[in-house]
Amino acid sequence: MSTARGARARARIEVTAAIKDEARRQLAKEGAAKLSLRAVARELGMVSSALYRYFPSRDDLLTALITDAYDSLGATAEAAHGKVAADGPIRRWAAVCEAVRGWALAHPHEYALIYGSPVPGYAAPDSTVPAASRVGLLLIDIVRDAHQGRGVALTPLPAELEPEARRMAEDLAPDLPPEAVTALVAAWAQLFGLIGFELFGQFHRVVEDREAFFRNAATRLGHGVGLVFPQGGGTAGGGNRPGS
Amino acid sequence: MSTARGARARARIEVTAAIKDEARRQLAKEGAAKLSLRAVARELGMVSSALYRYFPSRDDLLTALITDAYDSLGATAEAAHGKVAADGPIRRWAAVCEAVRGWALAHPHEYALIYGSPVPGYAAPDSTVPAASRVGLLLIDIVRDAHQGRGVALTPLPAELEPEARRMAEDLAPDLPPEAVTALVAAWAQLFGLIGFELFGQFHRVVEDREAFFRNAATRLGHGVGLVFPQGGGTAGGGNRPGS
DNA sequence: TCCAAAGCAAGAGCAGTGCTCTCGATTGTG
DNA sequence: CACAATCGAGAGCACTGCTCTTGCTTTGGA
User: Fold this and answer.
1) B31/A120 CB distance under 8 A
2) All structural domains of chain B
3) Is pLDDT above 80 for A243?
4) B32 touches chain A (CB under 8 A)
């Protein structure tokens, strides 16, 4: 059903893709604030008004780019995870974190679009939720696998947070202990804090070797959600060989 | 020397302040993207070109607002810290974190201006550095005080990070152990990750009781940099009474 | 096969933007 | 007092998002 029946429908999805491509190109070059519908149309050899047949407004174009960016990031993270799926949880956790950072460094403006300040009056429609959740779900899976084997000791929750923690666990991962879910959500936000600070220049003249710094911070983040050290497996863990 | 000698100079700083005030008002209402020089001028009863006598460009106006925002945040954090200066390190740490979050919630658009995606081709001039550093310096002070008394055990650094950690410690706090400084910088970034996620809607349908969630996450962040529990002081800690 | 309906690109036009330049008027200083 | 610096006002340029109307082309049903 998704195969276009007529030539017209086919042309429509092609033009739509071309518009998004050109918009993405301008986005990467100048940033979201300077993304101009007219410039996109000009570059595509059409007139600005024609573009409104495909996107009812500039914000709708941005929404499409946002969804695509979430999906691109999610796919990158999932692919990176797939390559180390046989390793231990911290290794997988670190791999996902580094993949997210790598994608952010490679697509700074798209990253800013989805994790930076939201556009003026714009509220992301619910249609972006599935794409936006992919990285989070991946992290949940990793933590779930780690807790599957044996229970991991986490610092207990304060009483004031217990109901909320129970609720979050119910929503996100009913098979995980509430303190693990709470720590996970926090680590998830903190991960993007690290990346955002690096990307948005807050580490200027503060952190130089950002690669090493991030690797360490991300690993510590993993420890914070209960993932254990590679060599801590007891059985002379397979996976302790130095990576390239 | 800062007192204006002539009436003209006095008028100048007054008009400059009025422009920033009105700009801040529009910023709070519509966000940075919709901040219009013309609208500011209109509201002030002058013509747009007159405004260029005070700010050479829109970006310069934004820069002024950015510096002011950093200072406002820094002052808020310092004031909050001053009120609990006699308490233990984690309490002071948590107080600063919550003050930062409170300021962010009260001034979301200004927060987005300084910690959100940077504007297009804009690079913050070095003049913003001192104002931008205030919160970070405050956190360093707290950690320094905590480590002053007794050394606190932190997880050792991996070899690859050791030179960078040493360098950072040299730059930021030569009297602190490198692993503490590294953890502190990470926690600093992670703190703003928590706040940014809450503010920019990433916690939508995920975290409900954000107050409690943040308090717990911020406290755990403090533990991560070596700050100990209030009741862990041994001497039946003064400061364990439930705060209002 | 024919024809109305729908989809489409183009152009003109509106209201708004940042910014520049010029022109008088005001103001402070030698 | 006179000169120079400063300031506000206005016109104007190039640009933006967006709307509306005008024709042309494709499509799908009778």
Assistant:
1) yes
2) 1-56 (1.10.10), 59-225 (1.10.357.10)
3) no
4) yes
